[in-house]
Amino acid sequence: MTIFLVRGFNDHFSGQNYRVTDVVPGELVAARFEEGDSVYYRAKVLGETADGKIDLYFVDFGDNTFANKQDIYKLRSDFTSFPFQAIECRLANAEPVGGQWSEEAITYFEDLTYCAQWKVLFCRVVSHSHHKHPNELMPVVQLLDTSGAQDVDIAVALVERGFATPVKPSNQNQKSEVSSSETSNGSSGLAK
């Protein structure tokens, strides 16, 4: 993964000129991941909450946050042309109980995968499934934590905890492709 830090990117937001005045869902902006973070990252505006917070998705590392409107900035056009570094995936061999991941399941998943701690997980693409558009495929991945005495299959752990039901690989009747890689998990989330 490439961290989106380009010389001049963070210096660009020092003045008031680039503050967002209108919130437009889908627009790319610059924001900090946490209060006190001095680094700005590219984020997509997902919407605005009832209490006026802006819901943001960080396109280069795949995490979400809520921010105040005065803390997000417009991006120069040259910063919007780079491909997003985060890739949305679906977890293999498990489906959420009730058809959607609960907040508790997401929290447990983040604990299992060391969300935002930059620890290495083993990731194996087992197939691809159709995403939001018929021509768009999403990787279906098996995630393993191999750092301990025994490997932990993230899907199995979610099933054992009652957050997911098992799915046999043959039921994920999408295009099959097997490749393996290690991924540094700066952030993660469960695909719905």
Total helical segments: 2
Instruction: Tell me roughly what share of residues is in helical segments.
Output: under 10%
Contiguous uncertain segments of 5+ residues:
1-8, 171-182
For the sheet with most strands, the description reads: 5 strands, antiparallel
Mean pLDDT: 79
Count of DSSP strands: 12
Q: Ends: how far apart?
A: 23 Å
Strand order of the largest sheet: 4-3-2-1-5
Q: Give the DSSP E fraction (strand runs of 2 or more residues).
A: 25-35%
H-E string? EEEEEEEHEEEHEE
Radius of gyration: 18 Å
CATH class of the largest domain: Mainly Beta
Shape: elongated
Pfam families: TUDOR (PF00567)
Biased composition (Low complexity): 176-192
Protein name: Tudor and kh domain-containing protein-like
Domain Tudor: 21-80
Write a structural description:
The relative contact order is 0.18. This protein has two domains: 11-79, SH3 type barrels (Roll); 90-185, OB fold (Dihydrolipoamide Acetyltransferase, E2P) (Beta Barrel), CATH 2.40.50.90. The longest helix is centred in the middle third of the chain and has 10 residues, at 103-112. It has a five-stranded antiparallel beta sheet, with no helix packed on it. It contains two helices and twelve strands; from the N terminus they run βββββββαβββαββ. A hairpin with a 5-residue loop joins β3 and β4 (64-67). It has helices spanning 103-112, 154-160, and strands at 28-31, 41-48, 54-58, 64-67, 73-74, 90-91, 94-96, 119-130, 137-145, 152-153, 164-166, 175-185. With 192 residues, the protein is mostly beta strands. The chain is elongated. Residues 167-192 are annotated as: Disordered. Residues 176-192 have a biased composition (Low complexity). Residues 21-80 form the Tudor domain.
